[in-house]
Amino acid sequence: MGRITRIITISVLVFLATTFATALKVDAMGGFSVNPVFPENQNRENNFFDVRVIPGTQQEIAIEVANSGDEDITVEINIITASTNQNGIVEYSTPGLRDETMSWALSDITTIPGLDENREIAVPAGSRVTVPILIDIPEEGFDGIILGSVHALLGITEEERSAAGMIVNRFANVIVIRLEDRGIITETEFILGDIRAELVNHHAAVLVEIRNPLPRLTMGVNANAQVYPVGSNEPILVSQNMNVDFAPNSIFQFTMIDMEGFGLEPGNYIARIQLEHQEERWEFEHEFEIMPQAAAEINEAAVNVGLPTQTQQTGGGNTGSSLFDNSVVVMIVIGVLAILVVAIASFLIVRSMTSKDRGERGSKSRKNDSGMDFSRHLDQGHSEESQRWSLAPPEQPKEQYDRMPRQQEPISQVHPEAEPRLQETYREAPRQPEHHRPPAAPQNNLSELNQPLNEPVDPHEVPHKASLNQYNEEDLAAERERLLEQQLQQREKEELRRFIMEQRQQKKDQE
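User: That's the sequence. What structure does it adopt?
Assistant: Structure tokens below.
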């Protein structure tokens, strides 16, 4: 079982490493950066290009592309005209829908000399390249603003593209460009555009186009929309999108997605739209028709039509057109999360089994010199009580403690024949408080006891010498055996305490 789990874990990790290797490699080329080179007529309060231009002139701006890495890179540079995407956000990275009222688009009046046929420049390792950008200002000038960006995209080789497979992660830098001539426009205006049924993010949906016909950046618009069958007061689709930002002369496709999976029925419908911006309010109502062929094609391609229905969630932001409605992205994210969960679970299982095996091997091999198996105590139900022991030595029984000799003076300093008698005296003496114990014998008196027995010794200087002869070698051996037994018991207890503490630590590690 443990071997199979390890194989599964290794396979999952190899899959993840292979899938994201190229993306990580591209991200690792972190030396790529782009910085603006501001002209003299730049508004210094902003860190993007905010330039007051003069009609009929050529405005020059520039960017500096830096490569602090150790490999040469290529950078693709494009000029993007600002638009409004389906999420209600101003888009600076990809081209979007322009309203027919747009007089001048930034990408139409801008050129970048020095680019190759792929709109790329080469940046050697450890160097910086300045890229000029030329903007031809209309001779008649313009009202409001012209808005867009310079988009720098890190190049990728064919080898990296092939190795990346389905996931290609490319690093990009975006710098906003805002041009102003005669001044900004203060009024706000919206126009209701086309309404039609479409397939959006693999779901059936109704798109309502809301146009901003003015060269003004209008921010913070609240939008609500409902679709009713003609002659009914019950809406089939409801959507709300808060804080919509409209780029100048752009079209916002207000998307109402069929999240319940009912599909679209052919017939006539009425769309009602309400917009709010600051103190102003707009209301639109328009009748439209869904043709049978269009409804059949959309329902056939929708991923949720015919599945169990669910209540449509409305309100609270970019409902109906959120990026998270993209089923492909959602499925990829779910798949990656599932793989990560399997990898983590496999790792925890392997770790638990490894810790268990290590604990069993430790229990079998942990014995002291006397041959005592400490795991036996845990198996007999003493584990809980043993784990409550502290690091302090356990309290000795009074009888056993009274039999332990007092080590006031080293026994080795006493004459060999006097050793048993002195030990017996200490053993039989009652335990007294520390401040009542008699002081130790002087060092000079003890040293006199080491003289040979055949020399004359004052009987008053060696107490109990007459009784020392009563102890033979057998008594001395028994006394030594008793002391060794006490030492062995103390050692066993210390080993048991150490074993219990290690078991407790292993249990904490496993938790």
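The longest strand covers residues 218-229.
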